[in-house]
Write a structure and sequence with these properties.
Blueprint (H helix, E strand, L loop, with lengths): L6 H12 L14 H33 L4 H46 L9 H6 L2 H9 L48 E4 L4 E11 L15 E10 L1 E10 H6 L3 H23 L10 H4 L1 E2 L11 H14 L6 E4 L1 H8 L20 E2 L2 E5 L7 E5 L1 H4 E14 L5 H4 L1 E14 L5 E5 L6
Parallel strand pairs: 1-10, 5-12, 6-8
Antiparallel strand pairs: 2-3, 4-11, 6-9, 7-8, 9-12, 10-11
Helix pairs in contact: 1-5, 2-3
Length: about 425
């Protein structure tokens, strides 16, 4: 790299080397600083001795004649002035010598840092200039004619000790989060609320309809109906995590991140319970547990996924309900989309179409919560009602175990809800296992 701003200094150095010392120049000093300090100290000692002798002579004169001669006074004044000047010179030389030692130590450290690893040490502008002394002398010996270019090979770089200390890096404060499942099942149900720990409802369980055509005066047939009480208990879904007070105070995003993660974990467990809870203990009785099992009618095709789902619609229709949607694993939906005929043409899927997934005019809900190979069909809003008792609540406390003396905090989240399966015949569940031919 050519540095134009070095040219004035380079030219001045070249002219200085070329000029005759007898014509223009500063005072030459062939002694180094330590030698000069030694000679000045010797001179100071001589002057101090002379001052002592002069003082003794003045004392003798005062004893003999009662006064000191003018010559002795002048000599003493001159020696004292010289002593003061020499003391000042000694201090300056000491400071200079101390500076030289400091520079020597700094250079030694730089050499140790750069020389041992094989890398070129970073030099200041002056050091880079002095390193080109041979070129400058050659330029001066030719009468300082023409131009002189100095290559500054030790440029400022991104290395430590050069410009590296000034480089800073951009930081994105928003964390890269792990993927979250789309939770779609709850939205398929009828939503409700309750203010108690239990939801009771009446369920129609008997319809013996004997309505018939009756002649005038004839007895009417009797029909029978029955209802019974049903109930579902409110269940709690909850979990917690522990955090140090320092982490919560120092990491500005931490509370929001933990809050979001805790809520997501709650909602994920809620969807699993709605779909597949087995009713044991504190589990919900989920849709798959309460749904009607698929039963294929005789005499109709049942060899592909599409066949089977159409038969599920039929079964629901025969129960006097109307199916509105299918729930299946993304893998099974992909299997339907990829079905081809003998000429490798897609039977159902259309690679260039951008449409909402639908089959037989019903919405298809893809969910990883549904196990591969299983499916659910029906009118889920008619089949079940989901009652919220308490929305998700996040609490932070130090009053847990030994938290208080350990500067720990416990962060918990909870919600309470109830699931009521009211019309099991409105939903049908099955699998995609086909008999081998």
């Amino acid at each position: 790299m050519k540095k134009k701003y070095l040219m004035p200094a380079i030219c001045l150095a070249a002219l200085t080397l070329a000029r005759p010392d007898a014509v223009v120049g500063s005072v030459r000093n062939d002694l180094n600083t330590e030698q000069m300090l030694k000679k000045v100290n010797q001179k100071l000692d001589d002057v101090t001795s002379s001052i002592k002798s002069t003082a003794e002579d003045a004392l003798k004169q005062a004893k003999q004649s009662g006064e000191v001669s003018a010559e002795s006074k002048a000599t003493a004044d001159k020696l004292l002035t010289e002593q003061t000047a020499l003391n000042k010179t000694v201090e300056e030389l000491k400071n200079s010598l101390e500076g030289i030692k400091s520079q020597t130590l700094e250079i030694s450290q730089q050499v140790a840092e750069g020389g041992g690893s094989g890398s070129t040490p970073v030099m200041t502008l002056g050091q880079a200039f002095v390193a080109q002394e041979d070129k400058i002398k050659a330029f001066a010996s030719n009468g300082a004619k023409g131009s002189l270019l100095i290559d500054v090979s030790n440029a400022i770089t991104t290395a430590a000790g050069s410009a590296g200390g000034l480089i800073y890096h951009e930081e994105e404060r928003d964390p890269v989060r792990m993927p979250r499942r789309r939770l779609l099942i709850r939205d398929l149900l009828t939503a409700g609320r309750t203010s108690s720990d239990q939801v009771s409802y009446r369920k129609h369980v008997l319809r013996d309809n004997n309505a018939a055509m009756v002649a005038e005066g004839a007895a009417m047939p009797v029909s029978s109906y029955g209802w019974e009480k049903a109930k579902t208990d409110v269940k709690k879904i909850a979990h917690h995590t522990n955090i140090t007070e320092e982490a919560l105070a120092d990491a500005d995003y931490l509370q929001t991140e933990i809050d979001t993660e805790l809520r997501y974990g709650l909602d994920l467990e809620e969807e699993k319970q709605i779909l597949a809870g087995d009713g044991a203990g504190e589990n919900f009785k989920g849709l798959l547990t309460e749904a009607t099992d698929f039963a294929a009618p005789d005499g109709l095709p049942n060899a592909t996924r599409i066949d089977r789902l159409r038969l599920a619609i039929l079964q629901i229709a025969l129960a006097d309900y109307i199916a509105t949607s299918f729930v299946m694993n993304p893998t099974d939906w992909a299997g339907i989309d990829l079905l081809k005929d003998a000429q490798s043409r897609y039977i159902f899927g259309n690679p260039v179409a951008q449409t909402t997934p639908m089959l037989w005019g019903k919405d298809v809900v893809e969910s990883n919560t549904m196990s591969a190979g299983e499916w659910l069909a029906g009118d889920l809003a008619m089949a079940a009602t989901y009652y919220d008792r308490q929305d998700a609540e996040v609490l932070i406390s130090s009053e847990h175990g030994s938290n208080f003396i350990e500067d720990m905090l416990t962060m918990k989240v909870r919600k309470r809800a109830a699931l009521a399966l009211k019309r099991a015949a409105a939903i049908v569940t099955g699998d995609f296992a086909f008999a081998q031919v």
